[in-house]
């Protein structure tokens, strides 16, 4: 009997404008938190491009206290 397994989730890479929009912070705030070790590290995409793993951004956002 086969176990119920789901296909792996698609690993999506987000660029900075989408990351900033999702978390409601500016570019400088993202890099400041990243340098302090309080935000997920970026991944190098090419010589001059970086991105962030969507799963890590979602996990980080869900770990933050809500404003309510």
Automatic annotation (TrEMBL):
InterPro entries: AlpA, Prophage_regulatory_activator. Transmembrane segments: none annotated. This is Putative transcriptional regulator. It comes from Thiocystis violascens (strain ATCC 17096 / DSM 198 / 6111) (Chromatium violascens).
């Amino acid at each position: 009997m086969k176990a119920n397994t789901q296909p792996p989730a698609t690993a999506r890479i987000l660029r900075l404008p989408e990351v900033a929009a999702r978390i409601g912070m500016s570019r400088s705030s993202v890099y400041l938190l990243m340098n302090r070790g309080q935000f997920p590290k970026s991944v190098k995409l090419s010589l001059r491009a970086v991105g962030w793993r969507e799963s890590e951004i979602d996990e980080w956002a869900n770990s933050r206290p809500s404003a309510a």
